[in-house]
UniProtKB/TrEMBL annotation:
Membrane spanning residue stretches: 20-41, 85-109, 116-138, 144-166, 192-213, 253-276
Protein name: Carbohydrate ABC transporter permease
CDD domains xref list: TM_PBP2
UniProt entry keywords in alphabetical sequence: Cell membrane, Membrane, Transmembrane, Transmembrane helix, Transport
InterPro entries with a match to the protein in the record: MetI-like, MetI-like_sf
Matches recorded under SUPFAM superfamilies: MetI-like
Residue stretches making up the ABC transmembrane type-1 domain: 81-271
Main location: membrane
Family indicated by similarity: Belongs to the binding-protein-dependent transport system permease family.
Compartments, as annotated in UniProt: Cell membrane
Membrane topology category: Multi-pass membrane protein
């Protein structure tokens, strides 16, 4: 065995025990993280007596699939899904385009006060979102956008977080490629969409997923800016479902919760390799 043998650390005294301890810690962390999710999914298939049973039933003995249909019929979930889909997709697309343009300008365009403006944007990230609720609502109300998709989407179109992530990533791009595009006569928009965007795909997908999940799970703003059931989004729709069920059918309420989080989980599992690549890209530079 040489010093360069990759298996050398595991053959040292205590190496195997250290690895087993690390695996045990990872299993414990995974159990803590996945435990509530499993309890939610299993309870969505339980009857009320099984949900309230003590000691708890970890595996439902009588699968109650009707909880999902009860939840769907107790509230207009088709409309809730449509509203959340429109707000998430349209809002994410506009916010991502805005973040891309701003990040490109901060990295590749010279203009006076660029560093100070970027520091100002970083300062805006430190302001709690609840501080802007009243000004945003007054603005939306004056525009007549209460109970509309425009009112749900408009206040979240500026993405300081997305601009920051994309700017930090674009700083790691090779200058030679940018110089070659400039020599070929490419303008800024062509450089952005033909050169920068393909090299930044993992980070762009990461930002898009973070923004989409944030909009999909948003509760406070849709609750404030909407007052009719046909404009509610899914998180607010769960509150509506709970009021409809009056705390009687927790199986249906938990089934509705599963229907809300399932699309986000599917998107995450499909795009998780892009997220990992986006968060680790440039780490070795």
């Amino acid at each position: 065995m040489t010093a360069l043998d990759p298996a050398a650390p595991s053959r040292r005294p205590g190496g195997r025990a250290r690895r087993l301890g690390l695996y045990a810690l990872l299993v414990l962390v995974a159990f803590i993280a996945a435990g509530p999710l499993y309890w939610l999914a299993s309870s969505a298939l339980k009857t009320n007596p099984q949900i309230y049973a003590y000691p708890p039933h970890w595996v439902p003995t009588d699968l109650r699939w009707s909880n999902f249909s009860d939840a769907w019929n107790a509230a207009p979930f088709d409309r809730f899904f449509l509203n959340s889909l429109v707000v998430s997709v349209v809002g994410t697309a506009i916010e991502l385009c805005s973040a891309l343009l701003c990040a490109y300008a901060f990295v590749f365009l010279p203009f006076p006060g660029k560093k100070w403006l970027f520091l100002f944007l970083l300062g805006a990230m430190m302001v709690p979102g609840h501080v802007t609720l009243l000004p945003n609502f007054l603005t939306v109300a004056q525009l007549g956008w209460v109970n509309t998709w425009a009112g749900l989407i408009a206040p979240g179109l500026g993405s300081v977080f997305g601009t920051f992530l994309l700017r930090q990533h674009m700083l790691t791009l090779p200058k030679e490629v940018m110089d070659a595009a400039r020599i070929d006569g490419a303008g800024h928009l062509r450089t952005l969409f033909r050169v920068v965007l393909p090299m930044s795909r993992p980070m762009v997908i990461t930002v898009a997923i973070v923004v989409m999940v944030t909009k999909w799970n948003d509760f406070i703003w849709p609750l404030i800016v909407t007052s009719s059931a046909d404009m509610r989004t899914l998180p607010v729709g769960l509150l509506f479902l709970r009021d409809q069920e009056t705390y009687a059918n927790w199986g249906a309420i938990l089934a509705g919760t599963v229907m809300v989080i399932l699309p986000v989980l599917v998107v995450f599992f499909i795009a998780q390799r892009y997220i990992i690549a986006g968060l680790t890209q440039g780490a070795g530079k």
